[in-house]
Design brief:
Strand order of the largest sheet: 3-4-5
Shape: globular
Largest sheet: 3 strands, antiparallel
């Protein structure tokens, strides 16, 4: 990103010491209280289209200036964590889809990895490579739609349509791979539900070869667009210290100058063997978050192509029938596989799980996705606790909008990519 895009524009106003103004990019707003010193409380959401889901933000406004921002959660009442106390490890995979339907593949794999670390289970190389490919495709699907919706909220409707086209191509790939488009349920403890069909790899390769041109077109459409720049540069600034204190992770944290990425800092699925960069920006504003997601999509393309080149025939599940579900074709035709299937799924049976508390985390598109599993030694966890990135990222919104204009709240929300399914406790 060239520095000239961030050159300050003169407002022609007197310095802040002479007039009670605060500058936001090339704009200046009065800091004097409204008529009679009164403020107004306004509910932004949960039905407002700009909230992208069931989000509610209570605002105290002084004219168009946000004096106080109080974000609220809890409008879905899903009870995801409680459901984990009544399901086996593999059954809970379907619940992880619903937590973040924008990147279900990443959630599937994240929970499966947490279970495998608890069980000390070794995963075949082919399964790990397929997981990497699917997770990076999920990252592209998540980021490209976030960028498109960020543009749409600020008036650039065409970019949103382009992003939906690319996401539909990815959904076709997910459907060919797992049978599902939105909620894939593709991961399994020990590997994957199915191997990759023969015709999927050429389809993935074709997509990866063409999508960089679309990313370039989106960048060209927005990065030099005066309106988009004015609505994002210097807007919604999240200082580095505030991001760390709020537990912010993912693109939001890297946009503040913190090079934290679990794929590099806590490698899993063989990420340490891939050649990729961790994009970082220092401005911490809406524009920086936009730049980070563009850069991460390009890195995801590179990682996926590297993984495809390494793919070789082999098992896609761990060869441990005391933990891993046998192949369905074998269940229908072989007595031993049928017995293993029943022993893993019948109530009162299941894999031998060590007692204790286990925590594992992966780098989902929005940040650190962590799983705390408390085991009492049975096949069903005593407690499942999830650390969803959106929950922590959303908590920092007041820092970014207080003192700014109410119109900037729309720009800030769209740059956070909050998924409401991750918020409800």
């Amino acid at each position: 990103m060239a520095d000239d895009y961030r050159e300050p524009v003169s407002t022609g106003l007197a310095p802040a010491a002479a007039l009670p103004y605060a500058e936001f990019g090339d704009r200046a707003i009065s800091l004097e209280p409204g008529v009679g010193g009164r403020t107004m409380v306004l509910n932004f959401g949960p039905q407002h289209p700009a909230t992208h889901g069931t989000l509610r933000v209570v605002l105290e406004l002084d004219g168009e200036i946000v004096r106080r921002c109080d974000p609220e959660i809890g409008f879905l009442h899903t009870g995801f964590e409680k459901l984990g106390e009544f399901r086996t490890l593999n059954q809970f995979i379907t619940v992880t889809d619903r937590m973040n339907y924008m990147s279900a593949m990443n959630n599937n794999v994240g929970f499966a990895i947490a279970c495998e670390e608890m069980l000390e289970l070794e995963i075949p190389e082919r399964a790990q490579l397929i997981r990497v490919i699917m997770c990076e495709l999920g990252r592209i699907a998540d980021h490209i739609l976030c960028v498109g919706l960020q543009a749409m909220d600020l008036g650039a409707f065409s970019v949103m349509l382009w992003s939906f086209i690319e996401r539909e191509k990815l959904y076709d790939i997910f459907e060919m791979t797992s049978g599902g488009r939105l909620t894939t349920s593709y991961g399994r403890v020990g590997g994957l539900a199915f191997d990759l069909p023969d015709d999927v790899v050429p389809r993935i390769r074709d997509f990866l070869e063409k999508v960089p041109a679309v990313i370039d077109e989106i960048e060209k459409m927005l990065i030099g667009n005066r309106i988009f720049r004015d609505r994002t540069i210097g807007v919604g600034v999240l200082p580095r210290e505030a991001a760390i204190s709020h537990g912010v992770t993912g693109p939001m944290l890297r946009a503040t100058g913190v090079a934290r990425d679990l794929r590099r800092d806590r490698p899993y699925s063989g990420y340490e063997t891939f050649d990729f960069e961790v994009p970082v920006r220092n401005d911490g504003d809406c524009f920086a978050r936009f730049e980070i997601r563009l850069a991460e999509m390009r890195e995801a393309v590179s990682i996926s192509l590297q993984a495809i080149e390494r793919l070789r025939p082999g098992p896609f599940n761990a060869l441990d029938h005391k933990v891993t579900l046998p192949d369905k074709d074998d269940v229908y035709t072989k007595m031993e596989s049928l017995i293993h299937h029943f022993m893993l799924t019948m109530p009162g049976h299941g894999p031998e799980v060590p007692k204790g508390e286990f925590y594992s985390a992966t780098e989902s598109p929005n940040g650190e996705l962590g799983w705390l599993i408390v085991s009492d030694g049975t096949a069903i966890p005593y407690r499942v606790r999830v650390r969803p990135p959106s929950y922590y990222n959303y908590s920092s919104i007041a820092v970014m909008v207080e003192g700014g204009l109410i119109s900037d709240l729309v720009a800030v929300l769209s740059s956070l990519n909050i998924i409401a399914g991750e918020l409800d406790r």
